[in-house]
Amino acid sequence: AMLILDCGLTSDGVHPVSSSLLRSIMMACKQGNVIFVADEVQIGFARTGGKSLWGYENILNRTDHEILNGEFVPDIITMGKPMANGFPIGCVVTRKEISARFATNFKYFNTFGGNPVAATACSAVLEVIQKEDLSRHSNQVGTYLIERLLSLQTHFSKVIVAV
Predict the structure, then answer these.
(1) Pairing of strands 76-79, 35-39
(2) Is the Cβ–Cβ distance between 92 and 76 less than 8 Å?
(3) Any residues with CB less than 8 A from the CB of 5 and at least 6 apart, and which?
(4) Lowest CB count within 10 Å: 6, 17, 133, 154, which one?
């Protein structure tokens, strides 16, 4: 069995699941031997602010202890558009034992696999994210936006019902 979850629920905006719910889901998957896939196509690459490139990590607000012990780590992470700032690219990261089972049981072919232009665009984006500390910047801008929206909500509560 497998569960694929966009932790930001980004189909109609950004509505991240709570840290406690995400922890519960991941623990249930671990206990039930269910493969947990973190879909980071929309929320990955510093788009959620926080200390990590990964949206699921920022939602969990993981501790160093959890990271070191491998707790709350997805079995598979999917990535896409943000990797190369909109240039067509996608990526799947997983543990060796999962990819080995996939390679043994399925034939796979990809016309666009190994595209050097896409890989170069991705490399440039990662460099900018790191050099300009965009995770921190995203967090600052997001915090400011929420504060201002909450302020507006106090004056326009009939129009702004939720922030």
Answers:
(1) parallel
(2) yes
(3) 17, 25, 36, 37, 38, 39
(4) 154
